[in-house]
Amino acid sequence: MIYVRAAALETEKNGRMVEDAGVIRAVLDGDVDAFAVLVRRYSQRMFEVVGRRIPANDLESVAQAAFVSAFRSLGMYEPGQPFEHWLLRIARRRCCDYWRDRRRRHELPEAGLSDEQRKWLERVSANLRWEEYEREYQRQEAAQVVHKALAELDPEDRMLVECIYFEELPLKEVAVTLEWSLSKVKVRAFRARKKLRQIIERLLDIE
Amino acid sequence: MKADKDKRDRVEQALAEAYRWQRTSGPSEAWHKGVMENIRAQSAPNTVVFPIKARIAWYAACTAAAVAVVVAAVGVLVVPSDGRLAWQLQQDGVMSEWVLQTGE
After folding, report:
1. Residue A62: its pLDDT value, please?
2. Residue B49 near chain A (CB below 8 Å)
3. DSSP secondary-structure letter at B8?
4. Closest of A190, A194, A174 to residue A182, by C-alpha
5. This model's pTM is above 0.90
6. Which residues in chain A touch residue B46, judged by CB atoms under 8 angstroms apart?
7. Which of A32, A98, A174, B92 has the most CB atoms in a 10 Å sphere around its CB?
8. Residue A96 is part of a domain; what is its CATH number?
């Protein structure tokens, strides 16, 4: 049964890949409105990926910028690869650009934690049962602390932590996204994680 | 210390879970319209992208340089040196005729 479902899913994926290729060909042939099919098909996924990285008030503009970038470089898309992967790679790059830009303009969130956020940190650092733990990471303060911790990292380090440790993407995929060698990604990811741990230690007042 | 390391690891894990759990709103109809308006305002997608253009330019430059080297080599081989030219002129008697004509 599982195999049948997996096969059906694979066929669906392949079908969608063929469909995407057809739409892309139409866009490249001059039918710009055909791009709306791709926007509708992948906008939800785009919002999920961008929404985790970018504050809610800038989510729509960054997601839109990612679709515009995808449209402009559509000639670069190789039909053999899934369009979704290619599109989300562009989206992740736009998010990195967003943080780079904000850092350049010194527009980063405040570094200090509020009382609520500090309490949350204390609770999750204690040895909780799974149910309690699950309840904790779903709280509003959880996402706020994540973003405060990530804001202290360089945009590239932030992207590495998000992609490799939080989203668990393959290193190869991250290397393609950042246009870096695999070994560079490994080294930088190791250092980025070390920095994140130092930030956590500072938040917890661990010497 | 082990206890501190455990605390840090638990927070790191909680941050990862919190990151994954974040929920975002879906795109609105107005947003879809806005995207397509922006797309229509763009010029046509680039079909020849920059790396390809750069590669073509690089190959063209290499070809031009190779052609220049071949032309220079052929020139060096075909055109006689000053000494050889003087000897040839002397052999042909052209030089003596020219000296006689100009009176130099």
Report:
1. 96
2. yes
3. H
4. A174
5. no
6. 72-76
7. A174
8. 1.10.1740.10
